[in-house]
Amino acid sequence: MRMICVLAAWLVAASAGAAELKVLTAGAFKSVVAAMAPEFERQTGHRLVVENETAGALARRIAAGEAFDLVVLTAPMIAQLAKEGKVAPGASAQLGRVAIGVAVKRGAPLPDIGSVAAFQRALLAAHAVAYIDPAAGGSSGIYLSQLFDKMGIGPQVKAKAVLVPGGLVATKLVSGEADLAIHQISELLAVPGAVLVGPIPAEIQNYTVYAGGVSASARDPAAAKAMLALLHGAGAQAAMKAKGMEPAAE
Questions:
Q1: If pLDDT is split at 50, 70 and 90, which confidence band does 4 have?
Q2: 96 vs 249, higher pLDDT
Q3: At what angle do helices 7-14 and 30-44 cross, to 10 degrees?
Q4: 18/147 Cα distance (integer angstroms)
């Protein structure tokens, strides 16, 4: 892979002078960025400043002119930023993908979600269902809102929805505000006290593919490219798998 082959050269260039690298990342990928940050800082001497929000919120911040060095968003968003000239040409890569799953509070009965019909029954039986507020721009919330409508249960679910503007949806299980949480699996696994029931059925599953891009106006392009290379490498792939994600297909 080209990204991995040139990693050593980028690290040498990046280590020429210490820099502060600003990384904007969609929430689902934050744990992977955090896992790779110590290695990047050790190898390059640079310091990472990592900020995360929903993909939609970050896209709006960039559109408003916010400066960044590296950004991790959904693959279509990175492609759009490259088209607009905000991501440097040839300085982007697909990194990983994550499925949507269901979680309950630790100790609660695990509902049957093994089929579309069973998943629908679990939704209708739940007292309160937590998921990302579609208006906040989170990819899973937008998809789920459309899915519930297609399943013919949109009004019923929305009537008992606990909409989360961003962050970890499964915290609403721990607080007792919801008894079912639906979010990207990597985000569900990040909440102590929440238990992953499993992914939603394959027939209605939606994978979000994440990609990284170096800013066209990065203060230190070599440092930003070095971090992108690490996020594309074997260490990051292992971190993704541990956190419920899959490396993106080449």
A1: very low
A2: 96
A3: 60
A4: 47
